[in-house]
Amino acid sequence: MTDDVKNYISPAGYRQLQEELARLWKVERPPVVTTVAWAAGNGDRSENGDYIYGKKRLREIDRRIRYLSKSLDRAVVVDNSGKAHDRVHFGATVTFEYEETGEQREVTIVGVDEIEAGDSRVSWRSPLAKALLTAKVGDTVTVLAPRGPEKLEIISVRYDDLR
C-alpha cells in the first residue's frame, strides 16, 4: 500500500490494532529483548540457540509493530453504526442475491485489517465491496469475479454497531 491510500477502519478494528500494538510492545517484546541480551553476553553467538531464535522472534515482533504503527497512522475511523442510510457505505451489512443461482449471501464491509478467514466480512477495497458501495436496496450490480462477471441484487442494507 502506498502512503497516500487511506486505511478506512471501524472503531472496533482501530481499537483491536491499538491493543495488539500495546501487547506486542509492552508484553511480548521485553522478555525477548532480555533473553537476547543475556544470550549475547554468553559469548559465541553463532551456536547460541537462545540468541539466534530470540533475534528471529524479535525481528518478527518488530516487523509487526512497524506494520501496525503505519496502519494506525493512516487509519481513518468511520462509524456509520446506527445511521439510517438507504445506500451501501463503509460499515454496511448487505444481503444480496446472485441473479444466476438465486443464492443469498450477507457480508459486512470493513477495513483491510478487519477481514477474517470466513466470508462474512469483506474489505472495502475488494471487488465485491467496490461493486456494492453506493448501491441501494433493489439495485442490481455487477461484480467482476474470477470466474467472470456476476450480477447481484441488493436485498437489504443495515448498519450494525461496529464499535
From TrEMBL:
Keywords: DNA-binding, Transcription, Transcription regulation. It comes from Luteitalea pratensis. One of its GO terms (molecular function) is DNA binding. HAMAP family: GreA_GreB (MF_00105), GreB (MF_00930). Necessary for efficient RNA polymerase transcription elongation past template-encoded arresting sites. The arresting sites in DNA have the property of trapping a certain fraction of elongating RNA polymerases that pass through, resulting in locked ternary complexes. Cleavage of the nascent transcript by cleavage factors such as GreA or GreB allows the resumption of elongation from the new 3'terminus. GreB releases sequences of up to 9 nucleotides in length. Residues 7-77 form the Transcription elongation factor GreA/GreB N-terminal domain. The keyword Mitochondrion does not apply. The gene is greB. The keyword DNA-binding applies. GO terms for biological process: DNA-templated transcription elongation; regulation of DNA-templated transcription elongation. This is Transcription elongation factor GreB.
